[in-house]
Amino acid sequence: MDAISDDFRVKGFIGTGNEDWADEGFHQHPSLEITIILEGKGLYERHGYKELLEIGEVVIVPPDQPHRYEGKQYSRFGVIHVEGVPQRLQSLLERLTPGGNTGRIALSRLDKERFERLFREWLRTLASHLKERERSWIAWLEVMMLFLLEHSRTSRQALTITKAADYIRENLQQGVQISDLAEMAGLTESAFRRNFEQTFQMGPKQYQHRCRMEESKWLLSASGKEIHEIAEQVGFNRIHSFSQWFKKKEGISPSEWRNMQRNNY
Fold it and tell me: Which residues contact residue 238 at a Cβ distance below 8 angstroms, ignoring those fewer than 6 apart?
């Protein structure tokens, strides 16, 4: 592990602001700043750039970059400051802030809720007496930065598409009706398919199967539910159909996969 510099400091908090709240002017600081909108709307501005931020959007401000915020309605936001960013996190930072510019990404509703849980647990870690304080801080920061990198979207259109993807993830028991999803996204069916594939590199039906498999594996490894219960939860009316589908994808049956996970430890 890289040595930690003496100027490594972290700070985090959840703040609120009214619609008439605004920074008096541009400010800058030596720390990396990650801010996520948890509720409401706000305006982010740096020289030559101004953008309205909505729920689930994240701004990643590199150190020493002048910027300001302005509230547009009551808002709640989570803020992370990291001063003296460790070498271990530099490559992630570079990918989140291409060219050293402000990074602006968007999380779907479900991913925003998951990130907020991570963020709150990190705040609890900051407030705790730790045996390995700096290592714990860095590990949590790395997890959160990786989460943002893996689950981020860079355009409003992609964020609209992820609303439909969230619907798929929350309704695995149901079949995918492209017409309903397209209407949800405000697009024609052909435009919806095209944008969905551009966003997720797969079609809606493939995405549903991937989510079903992820949920199946989670339930098999993290719960004591019977196989038929898991099958029903992910959208299969018959355990035989679920077992055939799982074996076709993984090469072994659900019960064999579960046993293999347990026998590896």
Answer: 231
